[in-house]
Write a structure and sequence with these properties.
262 residues, globular, Glycerol uptake facilitator protein
Length: 262
């Protein structure tokens, strides 16, 4: 097995990344978070337009899943800050290198920044008129479905979502070659899209795009979906994926100098 793969290598990578994030100014992290919200929205726009242009819903979902990953790939290659993958900074708290309150402060900052980027793109979607009637109706129907999901279904779906997404991110971290990283991310994120699970940053775009396009979405429904999706995504990525990998690697992790995020 390559020395760059496995739970130990992944944990070391995340801890090094946490040190890098801790050294950055808050405004830099916030701007990187806005960019991540923009990138995810780009993938969502392509996915929606392609899906709406196909008569068969199953084929539309499949084709949409093939283009959505460009957003996540842009996040990693451009080193933006995305809440769902950043949930794995919990590794630093598990390793007692960062206070947990600072992890939460960092994640809230990134979540708000992602929201700003997503709302900006939703606004441009409306004002640019790039969605025809079929695409607009698709995003409105999708948003209405999301805000009416039962609590248990929404939470479980969000947990599952970030288990899938963060597994893909972990695979990407383990690849030395850029083309290999892109390939595994493309496949992994396509699986997430096909699963139909709840990704809080993608939902930010879907919900606000639907709202700006005339969808009857109550503010309480939007808040409900985003809050529960964020919690579920945190559990999936920050507790399950990051936690289990740290559990496997904890005895081998070097005793690096402690550092705090944000």
């Amino acid at each position: 097995m390559s020395a760059s793969s496995g739970s130990k290598a992944l944990t070391d990578y995340i801890l090094d990344s946490c040190k890098s994030k801790a050294a950055k100014r808050l405004i830099v992290l916030f701007v990187k978070g806005i960019l991540a919200g923009i990138y995810i929205a780009i993938g969502a726009i392509a996915s929606l337009k392609l899906s709406a242009g196909v008569a068969s819903p199953g084929l539309g979902d499949f084709l949409g899943a093939t283009v959505f990953p460009i957003g996540v790939i842009a996040v990693l290659i451009m080193q933006a800050e995305l809440f769902t993958s950043d949930c794995m900074v919990m590794t630093s708290a598990f390793a007692r290198q960062t206070k947990i309150r600072n992890v939460f402060k960092f994640l809230v900052l990134i979540l708000v920044a992602n929201l700003v980027g997503a709302i900006f793109m939703a606004f441009l979607t409306r004002t640019s008129g790039i969605f025809n009637e079929a695409t607009a109706q698709l995003v409105i129907n999708k948003a209405l479905h999301k805000v009416n999901l039962p609590f248990g279904t929404l939470l479980s779906s969000a947990v599952l979502c970030n288990v899938i997404v963060c597994t893909g991110i972990c695979l990407g971290y383990s690849c030395k070659e850029e083309i290999a990283r892109i390939a595994v991310l493309w496949l992994s994120i396509a699986v997430f899209v096909l699963s139909g699970t709840e990704h809080v940053v993608a939902n930010m775009y879907y919900l606000f795009a639907a709202l700006f396009l005339g969808g009857a979405l109550p503010a309480t429904g939007i808040l409900y979906n985003l809050a529960i999706a964020a919690i579920g995504n945190f559990i999936g990525g920050g507790i399950i994926i990051a936690g289990l990998n740290y559990l496997l690697a904890r005895k081998d992790v070097a005793n690096n100098k402690a550092s705090d995020i944000a």
